[in-house]
Design a protein that fits this description.
binds zinc ion, 7 strands, alpha/beta, 35% helix, 8 helices, two-stranded parallel ribbon
Length: 227
């Protein structure tokens, strides 16, 4: 799971989710040399990886897509309709969406209608956020949108069931991990790639070896020696 590449954006003031273009290029080189198949989001295939990008920044089109094209890697871009309608210069335009929708490597999915925390809003708003998002994007692109990711990773069982009921076949959480065929397809784990990840960490995430809990704790006895 990526967000922005190359261009610092308002919603990421610390830059934690915005990769430098050269860092992104290096990661794609590592991915290519790994020979792991890059599959569409939602496919559970052992040893493969799916690339997803949240929020719908304009650099999807200007920076990220040209890099993906060099390798023929496919990706899913999760877009927020409200941001497109507001015509904020950091976000994709309607014309951009049409261009992306016709691109053979790219799938477009939803990311809530207005990027709200779906597990924290009333049921009536939840329905609107899920359904309007899918319908607006499908209309704008003349394309059937069947996937989404949960804004802010905010999801629980009722939200995931509501996403399925709203017509999504696949939905991604922000809970890190490896996607198995046994997962509910509207709660697919995704591992975030951060701006400061070094290549060793990127490789660990790519290979499903990154331990989220360990990454957030300090080893209380780092020498590992016996008593
Ligand atoms: Zn988001």
């Amino acid at each position: 799971m990526y967000h922005s590449v190359g261009q610092r954006v308002q919603d990421d003031p610390t830059g934690a989710f915005t990769l430098e273009t050269e860092v992104f290029r290096e990661q794609l080189r590592v991915l290519k040399s790994s020979q792991m198949p890059v599959v569409p989001f939602g496919v559970a295939q052992s040893g493969s990886v799916a690339l997803t990008f949240d929020d719908g920044y304009r650099n999807f089109l200007t920076t990220i897509l040209p890099e993906l094209e060099k390798y023929g890697f496919s990706a899913t871009f999760f877009v927020i309709p409200k941001r497109v309608q507001d015509e904020h210069p950091e976000f994709l335009t309607r014309a951009d969406l049409k261009t992306l929708a016709n691109h053979p490597l790219i799938r477009i999915g939803g990311h809530g209608y207005s990027h709200q925390k779906l597990a924290e809003i009333p049921a009536s708003n939840l329905h609107h956020e899920l359904k309007q998002s899918r319908e607006w994007l499908s209309d704008a692109m003349q394309y059937s949108v069947d996937s989404m990711s949960y804004p802010h990773g905010s999801v629980n069982v009722p939200v995931a069931r509501a996403a399925q009921a709203a017509g999504y076949r696949f939905a991604g959480t922000s809970y890190p991990g490896v996607h198995h065929t046994g997962h509910f397809s509207c709660a697919i784990p995704r591992t975030v790639i951060m701006a400061r990840d070094n290549l060793a960490l990127f490789r660990a995430k790519l290979e499903g070896r990154w331990d989220w809990n360990r990454a957030r704790m300090t080893d209380p006895y780092p020498s590992g020696e016996g008593a």
